[in-house]
Design a protein that fits this description.
The chain has 467 residues and is an alpha/beta fold. It has 16 helices and 13 strands. The protein is globular.
């Protein structure tokens, strides 16, 4: 494979999220979140794992940032635990929590690493779930905005990159549709209500940022949504339409409102009054509410027109509620898979980047997550993960092709900086480019971390080829 070449100003980063790495779940005044409680319910998380200690990043933050600096990373994407700064989600501020993030931000800057902050990566304050029904209640829009404003106020002097919400689809579908994630609600309609509130909360916070903070602070703000690629199973018109529909139900659901002011027509047609509607003012607020396109991308599936039986749909793989889309998903048995069972299909990444560029008028795109889990082991103090190196090389080479064909692709965050709490799968899945020994909490750079470091260092001499 030829050498990877990226523009000199390309942003290289890694990503994590608060609940998955911090631990210190009840330390220094932190309030409980829905994930703290979800993990206590027997049977919800593999082996009964919890994020109580996780990677203990709360106490090892400096060591972790030093490892990032050693790799030459330019950016670090992490999330703020809402209930660490506001223990009940609103009202009194927990200054110890503010201090932790303030120190983390300073530590990044000290090492020339740009902090990219996600405001919401799924750990809703428990009090908001109880008092307002969480994302199901309309109050969340104002509550999220107030929390976001607290963060802009306290951190915005140093933080220039904000992501409002991580993976609206997962919050809606896995949290409120399949019930696999907190708050463990199973429903066919709630995902659409929850998705609606997520979009409105995002738009409200962006409006506040732009009015009150951006003019003096000068940063950028956006949202990060996840989407797999959907390739038509055959070249028939029906399968091509099915793949398009699947993408609109997966990504268009959340990106169309942000770029065009409303849901995709195919969702409106198929869902009728199960899909909430935006008022003219809400549409205006939403349209253009992202300074960049944040994309989390992991895998690809074939999509075909479904002619009836929807019973065997894989919930993890299906973007949107199966019955509403009428799409049959499948994978090519020859595709290699990660230990999540997700197929490794680098070209799907390029096709998705192109789809986004075409549909949304070539916005600046950042891949805010991409990566893979494998069953890594330590041998003689080292972790050899050739499959992850191949994965990264493969996906990045398709990203490079996308840039060469004019996609405005500006940065890549590897998921994840280190092995961590993989939600309902607990510690059984390792996504890190650093290995974490969950007994000793020691971090070991895997071969993939070394590969990434060398890749980043080589880009210094490459001339910018895109804007
Ligand atoms: C994302 N799915 O989660 C999250 O943003 C990360 O916190 C997580 O660790 C990472 O991807 C790896 O899973 C997802 O079922 C979880 O389609 C599930 C799905 C997609 C993304």
């Amino acid at each position: 494979m030829s050498e990877l070449k990226f523009p000199t100003d390309f942003l290289w980063g890694t990503a994590t999220s608060a609940y998955q790495i911090e631990g210190a779940w009840a330390t220094d005044g932190k309030g409980p979140s829905i994930w703290d409680v979800f993990c206590q319910i027997p049977g919800k998380v593999n082996e009964g794992d919890t994020g109580n200690i996780a990677c203990d990043h709360y106490h090892r933050m400096k060591e972790d940032i030093a490892l990032m600096a050693d790799m030459g990373l330019k950016a670090y994407r992490f999330s703020i635990s809402w209930s660490r700064v506001l223990p009940t989600g609103q009202g009194e501020v927990n200054e110890a929590g503010i201090q932790f993030y303030s120190d983390l931000i300073d530590e990044c800057i000290k090492h020339d690493i740009e902090p990219w902050i996600t405001l919401y990566h799924w750990d809703l304050p428990l009090a908001i779930q109880f008092e307002y029904n969480g994302w199901k209640g309309p109050e969340i829009v104002q509550l999220f905005n107030d929390y976001a404003e607290l963060c802009f106020e306290r951190f915005g002097d140093r933080v220039k990159n904000w992501i409002t919400i991580n993976e609206s689809w997962v919050i809606a579908m896995l949290g409120h549709g399949q019930g696999l994630f907190a708050p463990a609600i199973t429903s066919n309609d709630d995902p659409y209500t929850v998705g609606h509130h997520i979009l409105l909360a995002h738009a409200e916070a962006v409006q506040s940022y732009r009015k009150k903070y951006q003019p003096s602070q000068g940063g950028q703000i956006g949202i990060a949504n996840n989407c797999d690629w959907r390739e038509p199973l055959t070249d028939t018109e029906a399968d091509r339409a099915a793949a398009e529909r699947a993408l609109e139900f997966f990504l268009g659901w959340f990106a169309d409102p942000v770029y065009m002011g409303d849901y995709p027509q195919c969702m409106k047609d198929r869902l009728g009054d199960r899909l909430p509607t935006f008022s003219p003012e809400e549409k205006k607020k939403l349209k253009g509410s992202s300074d960049f396109f944040g994309l989390n991308h992991y895998t690809t599936m074939y999509a075909a027109e479904n002619y009836g039986d929807m019973t065997n749909q894989n919930v993890y793989g299906n973007g949107g509620i199966a019955e509403d889309q009428h799409v049959t998903l499948s994978v090519d048995p020859s595709w290699e898979k990660t230990s999540m069972g997700w197929a490794i299909v680098p070209w799907g990444c390029r096709k998705l980047l192109q789809w986004i560029a075409d549909r949304y008028d070539n916005p600046p795109i950042y891949i805010t997550e991409n990566g893979c889990a494998f069953d890594d082991v330590v041998t003689d103090g080292k972790v050899h993960d050739p499959q992850r190196v191949d994965f990264m090389r493969g996906y990045l080479s398709e990203c490079q092709k996308a840039i060469e064909s004019g996609v405005n692709f500006k940065g890549y965050f590897a998921w994840s900086f280190m092995d961590n709490f993989e939600w309902a799968l607990g510690y059984s899945k390792r996504f890190g480019i650093h290995y974490v020994d969950f007994e000793t909490l020691e971090r070991i750079p895997k071969d993939s971390a070394k590969f990434y470091k060398s890749l980043i260092s080589k880009q210094k001499w490459v001339k910018a080829s895109a804007t």
